[in-house]
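Internal ticket - ligand job 455, protoporphyrin IX containing FE:
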Amino acid sequence: MTASPKTAPGPRGHFLIGNLLAFRRDVLGLLVDSQRDFGDVVRFHLGPMVIHLVSHPDYIKQVLVTHQHLYNKDTRSSSKIVGITGPGLLTSNGDAWLRQRRLMQPVFNAQRLLAYTDLIVAATDRMLDGWQARADARRPIDVASEMTRLTCGIIARVLLGADLSADIDDVERSTTIVMEHTWRRLQRIIDPPLWLPTPANSRFRAAKRRLDEIVFRLIAERRGGPPKNDLLALLLKARDDGAGGTGGGMSEEQLHNETITLLLAGHETTANALSWTWYLLACHPHWRQNTHDEVIGLLGQRPLTAEDLPRLDLVPRVFQEAMRLYPPIWIMERNVLESDVIGGYHIPAGSALEISPFVTHRHPAFWANPERFDPDRFTTQGNASRQPYAYLPFGGGQRLCIGSHLAMLEAQVIVARVLQRFRLELVPGCVVAPMPGITLRLRHALLMTVHSALA
Ligand code: HEM
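stdout (C-alpha cells):
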C-alpha cells in the first residue's frame, strides 16, 4: 500500500497573512533558509494563497518536463506582467503559446544568430569609446546602467533592425518604472487595479505609454521601409499574410505585444547577468586576469569573430558561474492545474508552485561550497557530472528561454571585448546587493572605475 501524500512542511506564519512579511523583508534569504530547514518541497502561505517551493532537480524536472501537462503559466505573476506586455509569448498558454513559439523559434536559431557577432562587437565598441573619456578623467561609471543600455540597443538592432540610441534614456527609465511597479503589485495580497489614479499607477501608466509609443513607432517605420530579414519582418509577415503558423494570423495588438515582450525580456536579463559578471570579476582579480589572458592569447587586440567563439573557454564559464550565483530569472512560477504529488507531498490544484534557480543553484547537495565563485564548475567534466536541472538559468522543458543562444552570444562577445580594452574596479565603499524583482537586479548603482587594460 502506498502512503497517502502528506502536507509539505514550511515556516510558520501569521494566522491571517501567512508568510507575507517574511517574503517582503528578505525573500531570497527566506527561500534559501527554507530549503535548508524544511527540505526540497516547502509550503508557504501568502494570505489565502498556498505556494510550494520545489528545489530538488528531480522535482523540478517533474514540473517542467514529465508532469508539465499538470502545470501552466496562468499565474499571478503572469497576470501582472501582462500589464506591461499584454498577452504574449512569456505569459500565454496552450495553443496560443504554441503558435507564437513555433512562429518565432527560427529567428533564435544558434547558427543563424552568429551572423550578428559583428553587430554586437560594433555596439560594444561604441560603448567603450565613451568609457575612454571616463578612464582618462578617472570618473567612475555605473556599469549596470551601461550594460542595460548596451543590451537594449543590441536587441533592438538584432530583432527589430532599429537604432534605439535616441530613445535609450526613455526606454531605460520607463523599463525600470514598469518593472518595479509590477514587482510591488506582486508583493501585495490586495492589489488595487491599475486604473485607480494613485501616483504610482499614474507613473506606471505614463511609462507604459512611452514604451508603447516607441514600439508602435518602430513597427510603423518598418512597414514603410525596405524589407529586412529579422524577427520583426517575420512577425509583420505573419500579421499581413494571416499565416501565424497553424492558421489564424496575428492581430495588430499581438504584433505589438510580442515586440515589447522581446524588447524587455531580451535585454534586462542579459544586462543583469553581465553586471554581476563584472562585479564578480572585480572581486576575484585572479579569475579576471586568467579570463583577460585567454582573450588576449586568442585575439590580441583584434575584434572577435563568430569563428573564434568555439575557442573561448573561460569566458563562457565565468558568465555561467555569474548566472549560477545571480540568476537573472531568480524565480519561475507555475499554476497547478491538477493536483500532483512531489517528493511524497501533496500539491493541490489551484495552488502556486515556485522554482527558484537562486535556491537550487545553491543547493548544498549539488554544489560544493555554493557561495564561492568558481568558474571551474563549468568545465566539460563538471557539466557532464552535474545532475540535470541543478543548473537552470534559462529554465527548462517546453518553456525554456527562447533567447538563450542570443544571450550567450552577446555575453561572450561583450565580456571578451571589454576585457581586451579595460579593467574594471569597484569604487571603494560601493555597496553591492541583489534586489529581487521581476529580474534579479543590483540594488544600487554599480560604480566602477575603468582602467586601460594595456596599462
Ligand atoms: C541571460 C539572459 C537571459 C536569462 C537568464 C533568461 C531566462 C529565462 C527563463 C528562466 C525563462 C523561463 C521562464 C519560465 O519558465 O517561467 C525565459 C523565458 C523567456 N525568455 Fe529569456 N532569458 C534571457 C535572455 C533572453 C533573451 C535575449 C530573450 C529574447 C531576445 C529572451 C526572451 C524570453 C522569452 C520570450 C521567454 C518566454 C519563452 C516561452 O515561454 O516560450 N530571454 N528566459
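Auto-summary: The chain has one domain: 20-452. The CA atoms of residues 141 and 447 lie 5 Å apart.
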